[in-house]
Amino acid sequence: MARLAIENPSNFWRDKASYITWFKAPEKILEGDPPKDKWFPGGITNISYNAVDRHLPKLRNKVAFYWVNENLDYKKEIS
Question: Cβ–Cβ contacts within 10 Å for residue 79, how many?
Fold first, then answer.
């Protein structure tokens, strides 16, 4: 994967961008040159939405996280 990302970063990251939900699709994948390049210019997304919220319709009644302390006491939270 690292070789593919180095050889053609735009194609590599275009594929990865298809796995996230965009509120506004990016106009391009990569613009400019290092170190001032811009990734996904014009795109709007939300990492919290992508990490949790978009999964709620299918996983509504699943445990969201387990909390465990050093004494192995635990709680589970349903989202």
Answer: 13
List the Cα angle 7/11/13 in 5-degree steps. Answer: 100
Contact 49, 21 (CB under 8 A): yes
Largest CA distance in the chain: 51
- Residue 43's domain comprises 2-78
pTM exceeds 0.85, yes or no: no
Q: Shortest CA distance to 61 belongs to which of 74, 76, 51, 43?
A: 76
Number of domains into which the chain is organized: 1
Question: What tens digit of pLDDT does each residue of 29-66 get?
Answer: 999 988 899 999 999 999 999 998 898 888 888 877 77
**32-67 burial code (b ≥16 CB/10 A, e <16):** eeeeeeeebeebeeeeeeeeeeeeeeeeeeeeeeee
